[in-house]
Design brief:
Two copies of one chain form a homodimer. By secondary structure, the first copy, chain A, is mainly α. The first copy, chain A, is built from seven helices and two strands, in the order ααααββααα. Chain A has a single domain, classed as Winged helix-like DNA-binding domain superfamily/Winged helix DNA-binding domain (Arc Repressor Mutant, subunit A). A two-stranded antiparallel sheet of chain A has the order 1-2. Chain A is globular and about 45 Å long. Chains A and B meet through helix 1, helix 2, helix 6 and helix 7 of A and helix 1, helix 2, helix 6 and helix 7 of B. Chain B binds a DNA duplex through helix 3 and helix 4.
Chain lengths: 111, 111
DNA sequence: TAGAGCGCTATAGAAAGTCAAGCACTACGC
DNA sequence: GCGTAGTGCTTGACTTTCTATAGCGCTCTA
């Protein structure tokens, strides 16, 4: 299917998956529990978040620690590899602030 | 809906849209025609590509120039703002090469 | 004792992406 | 001149992905 496997393409594929960049940004600030993370990201639903976290964990970007089963308490945090995406998020942030037009939907909200 | 509008969130939303990062990477190398771009990106279909290009143009990241109507020939290229994402793509690339494990699906292809 | 919170999962429905075909032509080989 | 390939898309039908809603077992707070 994929021809020769290009790590760069694969990375772009991973980062373009809906919510992944947001999840990474949230975890860059601090570790979070599941629901807490959902709120920090804003707008994800539990099913999707769960799928993303599982994938990011398998890929070694984040680490999941079960702190207690009952009451349930889980902690998600970035691994070293995950933290190294810090620079990417920073660059995107700087770019976004430099180009707010590029990033905003043409507002057609009637007054 | 969106609370206060955060340009950084908005930028992440834009970049996480399927194919956008790939499109930007392809155009970073050189301007492309439509079908040419589709091939460069690899795996996009025309309908989606068309939608993405339209959006990226509205946002001012890329510029579309019709060089001739018949035979049809169009050129897509990055604007200044688009080119400034160069650093982001570069950082992702470097990260991807440093962490090939993080980026590759666990191969479970039976021999 | 009631209500909210935790970390999820299951199931249905809406939305987004894909495939295949096709339009109206031009450029090339023969 | 004729068939084949290429250009830049658009239009349905179909499939994959994401979303909303509900709920589980349990604890902790009021």
């Amino acid at each position: 299917m994929e021809e020769d496997f290009c790590p760069i393409n694969a990375a772009l594929d991973l980062l373009q998956e809906k919510w992944n960049l947001h999840i990474i940004r949230a975890l860059l600030r601090a570790p979070h529990g599941f629901n807490e993370l959902a709120r920090a990201v804003g707008g994800v639903n539990a099913a999707t978040l769960s799928a993303r976290l599982e994938k990011l964990e398998r890929r070694g970007l984040i680490e999941r620690t079960v702190e207690s089963v009952m009451p349930p308490r889980t902690r998600y945090e970035l691994t070293r590899a995950g933290q190294e995406l810090h620079g990417v998020i920073d660059l995107v942030s700087a770019w976004a602030l430099r180009h707010p037009e590029a990033v905003q939907d043409e507002v057609q909200e009637a007054a």
